[in-house]
Amino acid sequence: VFKRFVEIGRVAFISFGPHAGKLVAIVDVIDQNRALVDGPCSGVRRQAMPFKCMQLTDFVLKFPHSARQKCVRLAWEKENINAKWAATRWAKKIEAREKKAKMTDFDRYKVMKAKKMRNRIIKHEMKKLQKMSSKKGKKLEKPEKAQKPEKAQKSAKVQKAQKA
Amino acid sequence: MAGEKAAGEKKPGEKKPGKKKPSEKKPAEQKTSQKEVGEKKKKVKKHHASRNPVLARGIGRYSRSAMYARKALYKRKYTAPETKIEKKKKEKPRATITKPVGGDKNGGSRVVKIRKMPRYYPTEDVPRKLLSHGKKPFCQHKRRLRASITPGTVLILLTGRHRGKRVVFLKQLATGLLLVTGPLVINRVPLRRAHQKFVIATSTKVDISGVKIPKHLTDAYFKKKRLRKPKHQEGEIFDTEKEKYEITEQRKSDQKAVDSQILAQIKKVPQLRGYLRSTFCLSNGVYPHKLVF
């Protein structure tokens, strides 16, 4: 039922508080509510932190309990947590949310145009397929094959808009 | 400080060049002290703090004679004020004059004061300020411009017949209104004035540094014209007033002159033309206080 546990070396994401948005590693457990936490590669000093503001990630590091910062840093860099984190969907969603909030009026216009174009392409292909299927009566094969070129076109334009 | 004091003392410093410490460079010092005297005359002298530290209330550290030496009063000798005799010897301007007076048994002349006392004294020390004090006419008001609005900014008009349209800001006019243009070919907004308060400034900017705006585009140019010549014929007044606004040739030529320059800049930015063509609107889930413009 539970897959992520609080353990020594568990990398956690801080959801609120002064260090909101940073990653830390759990170094030791103080009591039921707090942990000794350290984030040498993410700019968080070694400190006590309540569990409530931490959200566990999938990453676990290997170091003994109460290891000093140097050891935590070594383990962190060995596992290359920063790069792994940036590749997770979680981090990407956060980034997308931030970008959306920063969008200016002009950016919103560009996104609207890109979305419109993309939807047009999709609709066009769908209509084509519907026509074909109604004409010939075939359903299974063609919709699966046709989706791949569509997706490539869509993503190119949406990426353009997001980069702006 | 000792050097300053030597320069500061005008006459005594010069009178006694043989004084101990600064007397090392006598001729040089006198020259510089003369220069500094000229400067010091214009400067306001700074008063030194008390040179007599307080031991307890009313008791100073140093005696009178010690203080005399500390304050260098031996250098500071002031002459006595003018005595009355010397004053009398000065020429004073005439205060009265005797004038001949006509008439019988009048005693031929009167002694009249030349400078008379004022006949009225105001009862307030500081004259009362006029009610209109500090109230400036509109033409002298301070004009402010939001920092987010700079030449070339794309603005969103919120009121008027062009509400919702995105428009390029050119400059602020003398009355504080903003001179704005569509450009006309893009969104049918001509060279027009807009009010700063009824406008959203976006962060999108067009480079207008090279664009020259003709100088005759002032408030007077844009002001609405009203015919007012009622010749006491009430029936005809409503006919003669301009009902339909006609675009003058000058407006058209000015529009072209400005727009041609701006369009060149707009074309350089991709999708900007389409952006200016579109209108701004809110929909479900869009909250202006959360939007970044």
Automatic annotation (TrEMBL), chain A:
<dbReference type="GO" id="GO:0003723">
    <property type="term" value="F:RNA binding"/>
</dbReference>
<feature type="region of interest" description="Disordered">
    <location>
        <begin position="125"/>
        <end position="164"/>
    </location>
</feature>
<protein>
    <recommendedName>
        <fullName>Large ribosomal subunit protein eL14</fullName>
    </recommendedName>
</protein>
<feature type="domain" description="Large ribosomal subunit protein eL14">
    <location>
        <begin position="46"/>
        <end position="119"/>
    </location>
</feature>
<dbReference type="GO" id="GO:0003735">
    <property type="term" value="F:structural constituent of ribosome"/>
</dbReference>
<feature type="compositionally biased region" description="Basic and acidic residues">
    <location>
        <begin position="140"/>
        <end position="153"/>
    </location>
</feature>
<dbReference type="InterPro" id="IPR002784">
    <property type="entry name" value="Ribosomal_eL14_dom"/>
</dbReference>
<feature type="compositionally biased region" description="Low complexity">
    <location>
        <begin position="155"/>
        <end position="164"/>
    </location>
</feature>
<dbReference type="InterPro" id="IPR014722">
    <property type="entry name" value="Rib_uL2_dom2"/>
</dbReference>
<keyword id="KW-0689">Ribosomal protein</keyword>
<dbReference type="GO" id="GO:0006412">
    <property type="term" value="P:translation"/>
</dbReference>
<keyword id="KW-0687">Ribonucleoprotein</keyword>
<dbReference type="InterPro" id="IPR008991">
    <property type="entry name" value="Translation_prot_SH3-like_sf"/>
</dbReference>
<dbReference type="InterPro" id="IPR039660">
    <property type="entry name" value="Ribosomal_eL14"/>
</dbReference>
<dbReference type="GO" id="GO:0022625">
    <property type="term" value="C:cytosolic large ribosomal subunit"/>
</dbReference>
<feature type="compositionally biased region" description="Basic residues">
    <location>
        <begin position="129"/>
        <end position="139"/>
    </location>
</feature>
<comment type="similarity">
    <text>Belongs to the eukaryotic ribosomal protein eL14 family.</text>
</comment>
<dbReference type="Pfam" id="PF01929">
    <property type="entry name" value="Ribosomal_L14e"/>
</dbReference>
<dbReference type="GO" id="GO:0042273">
    <property type="term" value="P:ribosomal large subunit biogenesis"/>
</dbReference>
Automatic annotation (TrEMBL), chain B:
<dbReference type="InterPro" id="IPR005568">
    <property type="entry name" value="Ribosomal_uL6_N"/>
</dbReference>
<keyword id="KW-0689">Ribosomal protein</keyword>
<dbReference type="GO" id="GO:0003735">
    <property type="term" value="F:structural constituent of ribosome"/>
</dbReference>
<dbReference type="GO" id="GO:0002181">
    <property type="term" value="P:cytoplasmic translation"/>
</dbReference>
<keyword id="KW-0832">Ubl conjugation</keyword>
<dbReference type="InterPro" id="IPR049633">
    <property type="entry name" value="Ribosomal_eL6_CS"/>
</dbReference>
<keyword id="KW-0687">Ribonucleoprotein</keyword>
<keyword id="KW-0963">Cytoplasm</keyword>
<feature type="region of interest" description="Disordered">
    <location>
        <begin position="1"/>
        <end position="58"/>
    </location>
</feature>
<dbReference type="GO" id="GO:0000027">
    <property type="term" value="P:ribosomal large subunit assembly"/>
</dbReference>
<keyword id="KW-0256">Endoplasmic reticulum</keyword>
<feature type="compositionally biased region" description="Basic and acidic residues">
    <location>
        <begin position="24"/>
        <end position="39"/>
    </location>
</feature>
<dbReference type="InterPro" id="IPR041997">
    <property type="entry name" value="Ribosomal_eL6_KOW"/>
</dbReference>
<feature type="domain" description="Large ribosomal subunit protein uL6 N-terminal">
    <location>
        <begin position="41"/>
        <end position="100"/>
    </location>
</feature>
<dbReference type="GO" id="GO:0003723">
    <property type="term" value="F:RNA binding"/>
</dbReference>
<keyword id="KW-1017">Isopeptide bond</keyword>
<feature type="region of interest" description="Disordered">
    <location>
        <begin position="84"/>
        <end position="109"/>
    </location>
</feature>
<comment type="similarity">
    <text>Belongs to the eukaryotic ribosomal protein eL6 family.</text>
</comment>
<dbReference type="GO" id="GO:0005783">
    <property type="term" value="C:endoplasmic reticulum"/>
</dbReference>
<comment type="subunit">
    <text>Component of the large ribosomal subunit. May bind IPO9 with low affinity.</text>
</comment>
<dbReference type="GO" id="GO:0022625">
    <property type="term" value="C:cytosolic large ribosomal subunit"/>
</dbReference>
<feature type="compositionally biased region" description="Basic residues">
    <location>
        <begin position="40"/>
        <end position="50"/>
    </location>
</feature>
